[in-house]
Amino acid sequence: MNDQVHKASEENSSCAVKACGNELLSRTQCNLLRGVAILGIFLHNYCHWLNPVVKENEYTFTRYNVERFTQAMLHPDVLFPLHVLSFFGHYGVPVFLFLSAYGLVRKYESGSSIPFQGVTESRFAVFSGASEGLNFIVSHFLKLFKMMLIGFVLFTIVDALTPPSFHYKFVNIIAQLGMFNNLLPDPDRIIWPGPYWFFGLMLQLYVVYRLLMYRRHWSVVVTLIVCCWLVQAFCDPEGETINRIRYNFVGGMLPFGAGYLYARFGRECSKPAYAAVLLLSGVAVVAFSYNFQTWFSVPLFVCFGCVAAVKLLPERGTAVSWLAWMGSLSAALFVCHPVIRKIFIPYSRRGDVYTGLLLYVIASIAVAWAVRELMKRIPDTRLK
Fold this sequence. Notes:
Elements: H1 2-11, H2 27-47, H3 63-74, H4 80-88, H5 92-108, H6 119-128, H7 130-161, H8 170-178, H9 187-190, H10 197-213, H11 218-233, H12 240-246, H13 249-265, H14 271-287, H15 292-295, H16 298-312, H17 318-328, H18 330-349, H19 353-376
Helix pairs in contact: 2-4, 2-5, 2-16, 2-17, 2-18, 3-4, 5-13, 5-16, 7-10, 7-18, 10-13, 11-13, 14-16, 18-19
């Protein structure tokens, strides 16, 4: 397939675009983005379990949650930071999706040019590259499975020892191990631990990338984004349909597609331009959270704002180094934080809100470091 791609590239030079010229995001900047994302996710996943705290609009758009958030902003109390983390922290997920697509393009499409593929060429590429495509999907399934299995085993042990324990059903366990539980009815009640829905989402997006986006014309990606947006736009904001849809790739297509397009067409900007992007994105994130139709675009502005923020950070410094280190720990921290949450959430629910949160943060980071070291010793599952 690679020979055919390069040949097509030469024949369609007028339609080719330069891929991945200069590094848009350095390794450190990618780790900084991962650090921001994982901090939002693992703090959000603790805070939104606390009853007095405002709940988020992640899978559905609930007007009541928006009204409660408004009241929390107008009348701040001791829980103010927790309200903000609970309402906005889950947007770390779109940042991870953005980075995943960016990384896929940089890794697999870093040739001198990317050919335009029409319908005929796209079909030919899919069939002629079936073996390579299957290799890609299986390899990434195994990569996700290695991470997920460690955390899932640890969580089920802790969950069994700390009441209330979840009642697992046979099909739910198989669906989690196969990472297709997002597709089953009532995902809110069958995915446990809750954050592990992300593994199924990533697997779906890997499949979408390899079959529909890999070395395609930008219009294919834009069409996917628009179609996924329209599917959601006509749903009941608080209905079960949109809830199920957003557990799957349809809900993550906007940030994932944005990361793909950024890797292909992104350009460096000046510091003042990044500052303007950060400011406007921050305003958009808050303002667009108040309307169902504009709410769909919030993940895009979160990604824009986060990229602008890391571009404005100094190259060195204690805070920058620590945030980058957190980014390097992000996979392990994502895997293990539900385990630690189950242990320490009772402290906060008994009234010691910040005591429980502090213990949770310290223990999560420590265990994540240990898990990362363990994962390094598991043989590489990538296919050659």
